[in-house]
Amino acid sequence: MSFFDIVAGDDSAADLAHDWGQQGLKGRIMLSLIRGAVAAIATAGIVATLAGFLGHVHPLFDTMGAFRVQLAIGFVALFLFTVAFSALVARTLALVGLAIALFGLAPGVLPEDPVLSPDLRVYSQNLRYDNPMPEAVVAQIEAERADVVLLQEVSASNMVIPRTMRTRTEVICEFSGIGAIAILSRYPVMEEPVCARGQGAAWARLRTPDGPITVVNLHLPWPWPYGQAAQAEVVAELLRGLPEPILIGGDFNIPAWAHSVDRILEATGTRAVGGLRLTFQRPSFWPGLPLDHVLVSEDLQAQTDMLPRNGSDHHALITNLRFR
């Protein structure tokens, strides 16, 4: 069909032009719908990210705040998607959401100053109650030359770990059906250790060559809809007034920026050792969640690094401490 046919008013040419117009209109409508859907997703992500800052209002928001890393990754993916579809509004929303998420991650990302010649080395790990590699855990602890060891989910199947360690201090404190918590130390205690049975907390005042230190092992349950908020309140009051300096290590089951952790920080006068460590590893929570932490008094210099899991779903942590 030629240009002259169209000019002459050929019906088939007019129909073809109409079809092209209809297809173009459908394409524009579809593109508009896609852009609107992406903008709605980005808006929902922003709401979820902002809600994660409101853990002091309701424990649900602490749970939402636990996924700040995943939300940041989601905003990056949305941004790339919006570039492909020239969705300016959605792209702007994705950038706003990413900025909010990164702002919330900043306190946890900034690392502490390195401790090159530590006075004390503390190892902490949630073993997982059915850990199939207890010997590897023992070998790792020995290789790290840990002075103090804090273990969570100590069960019948992995009890070989504390039983194998040659330590002067051993505190095994029952917590729940998934296992006890344990404090092991090559240094002696200065007074009777305390086991807050059923609360996932135990502590001991240790005598070290560089001075005394109170070491606390902590295991909190999952956040809302579980009972973490209530237990954190109880534990915070139990720990209030402990003699300094203090080190608190364990599986908090919540990021360090959560309100549950804030309550413990306030009660003990400690700070969370810097650095973002995605210690909890399961495919459904990729790339991981920062659930295991170390809190220390201001008069302690600390550096915490992540170690292999060795059969657990939690990475181990090794903390170098130096008395100021």
Fraction of residues in β-strands:
15-25%
Q: Helical segment tally?
A: 9
Distance between the termini: 89 Å
**Mean pLDDT over all positions:** 89
Examine the secondary-structure arrangement and name the CATH architecture of the largest domain.
4-Layer Sandwich
- How do the strands of the widest beta sheet line up side by side? 3-4-2-1-12-11
CATH topology of the largest domain: Deoxyribonuclease I, Chain A
Please identify which CATH superfamily of the largest domain we are dealing with.
Answer: Endonuclease/exonuclease/phosphatase
Question: Would you count the extended β strands for me?
Answer: 12
The total tally of domains equals 2
Please trace the helix and strand order, writing H or E for each element: HHHHHEHEHEEEEEHEHEEEE
- What class do helices, strands and sheet pairing give? alpha+beta
Give the overall shape, derived from the CA principal axes: elongated
- Uncertain segments: 1-9
Q: Roughly how many Å is the radius of gyration?
A: 27 Å
Helix content: 25-40%
Major β-sheet annotation: 6 strands, mixed
